[in-house]
Amino acid sequence: MLTVVGCDGGPLPPGADAALRAATLLVGGARHLAGIDGPAERIVLGDVAAAVSRLARHDGPAVVLASGDPGFFGIVRALRRAGLAPAVLPAASSVAHAFARIGEPWDDAVVVSAHGRDLRRAVNACRAHRKVAVLTAPGAGPRELAEALRGLPRRIVVASRLGAADERVTGPEGALEPNVALVLGTEPAAPGPARWVAGADPGPTGWALPETAFDHRDSMITKAEVRALALARLGPRLGDLVWDVGAGSGSVAVECARLGAAAIAVERDPAACDTIAANAARHDVDVQVVRGAAPAALSDLPQADAVFVGGGGIDVLDACLRRRPPRLVAALAAIERVGPALAAFDAAGYRSAGTQLQANRLLPLPGGAHRLAATNPVHVLWGELP
């Protein structure tokens, strides 16, 4: 019989004492094992795969002591993947305790894990969303998170050593291990209405919004039909970072943010930068606006998962390709640029394709009739890394 017991610093869950008395093998973190008496063999949990392998070979009752709810980003998944069928006696998760300490509901929080993986996707989630719980790890903790989010409208609350005598709730500099980092908007938000689904909102019911949904001037906006195709090829999603280079009104960046991705809009015109910020606010999303001319303005940007190039020459496209984003989309007005752009994709090792889009929109005429109004043709090219 294998039992997984959740520990949160309070009394153990009902049934845990009986399981511990019967166990001939105990597996857990050093601080959890230290609080348990008895003659059972003990394994300090470090290498999860090795511990799971040992549990699979054990002939007799065993108990795994785990933090919080072991079925929530915990060891239960690894045990089940190994074919084991544990009984689980959970405690409250560390995320639940952390939000309880600050008195906030968390059914609308995005929860991400940095255990055993690059912090980049967690950072992107924090860029895009205003209530994120990050399950941290050594080298991917509150200080690294704070550095990656420097200058962005985020505040970080760290709940350290939850349930222990030295539990504390601080900023990143006061963090102890283990901890949970809560990344929140700078301004406390009033709770919204009761929700039907946990985590991030399900997302918009549509995209490729009409141009009237954005402030813009002199038609400096990517048309809705072009945006529809660009979004399909960019594939923005939670955990991704998208650059919108030569952003103009920022319509592509805003639409990517509405779909859950982090977005950076690069634009050299100061007035256009203000327009991008206004459009992001209008749609209640966070878009980082970088004022500067590409390609120079790209050098310090964090790695992108997808890039949209809506302005600039082949030198801008080349600079973006050198950063090796998995997906890149370029919109070109001049047909003379199509050949050099495809050559740039090929030289960079991308699988590329393209199409010309030219839409005829229905406009009303007197008497209930309609006419077709042509939009300017745009060449949309895209590339993906193999």
UniProtKB/TrEMBL annotation:
The keyword Transferase applies. GO terms for molecular function: protein methyltransferase activity. Pfam families: TP_methylase. InterPro entries: 4pyrrol_Mease, 4pyrrol_Methylase_sf, 4pyrrole_Mease_sub2, CbiE, Cbl_synth_CobL, Cbl_synth_MTase_CbiT, Cobalamin_biosynth_MTase, SAM-dependent_MTases_sf. Pathway: Cofactor biosynthesis; adenosylcobalamin biosynthesis. Residues 13-172 form the Tetrapyrrole methylase domain. The keyword Membrane does not apply. Keywords: Cobalamin biosynthesis, Methyltransferase, S-adenosyl-L-methionine, Transferase. One of its GO terms (biological process) is cobalamin biosynthetic process. It comes from the Bacteria. PANTHER family: COBALT-PRECORRIN-6B C(15)-METHYLTRANSFERASE (DECARBOXYLATING), COBALT-PRECORRIN-7 C(5)-METHYLTRANSFERASE. This is Precorrin-6Y C5,15-methyltransferase (Decarboxylating). It comes from Micromonospora pattaloongensis. The lineage of its organism: Bacteria, Bacillati, Actinomycetota, Actinomycetes, Micromonosporales.
